[in-house]
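Board notes (copied after class):
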Amino acid sequence: MSPVVSLLLYAGLMAALFVAERIWPATQARGEWANNGVAFVLTACGQIVRATLLAVLVATVVNGLGGGLIDLRTWPFWAGALMWLAAMDLGEYLFHRAQHAFPWMWAMHSLHHSDRALNFSTTQRHFWLEPLIKSVTIWLAVAILFRGDAAIFGVYALANFWHLVAHANLRLGFGPFAWLLNSPRYHRLHHSREPGHYNANYAALLPIFDVLTGAYRRPAPGEFPETGLDEALESPWDLIIWPVRGVRRWFAGGKGEAAAP
């Protein structure tokens, strides 16, 4: 998928979600979106596009240099694309679990969880260093193990846009089939402020990994908890210095970053 096509799809999906969140919202909380426009800044940054293109670039370069022990190009296309998607999603899942387990990773990831009004722009709220870390860990590992092609990478790129939907402030859920695909209702529990929801629903795209690790929690009917942390963005500058900001406050005797939920 070309960068131009990616940007057009990204912009179109954002516009659709912007409208949908106002027609069928899970909650009426507006938070930063209405108060200081940080959400618009985050959306304009387009981090999901940059991260997706970087992941595809890593795979292309590593495969081009001879990486890829298992050649998915010899598989039926649907099987190869599904295997690549599952392998990348498993990597994202393991990385996400590490972000909640190791303090130095949580110091960065807490930026994502700080949004008190979860909406599709929250997808962009990630510390800038995280995609670079993924480039030399999970994305590199998948590219060393599997060899793909442009079509397989394109399917993965398209699937990545679902992250915008999963974070949207919508009442959308899949009921008893919540284990099949991440949804706004499912993922909202992961961002919940309620301690009873901690350590649950880590999945990026495929909740089956939550099922296998015991982290699966199916949302109850009408369950739309409040989200966010005590720490909040105060200016776009915080996007650049977020982990340092937490350490600075800790040394100053403040609360610092909240413990990883």
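Comment from the instructor: The chain has one domain: 3-251. Strands lie at 70-71, 146-147.
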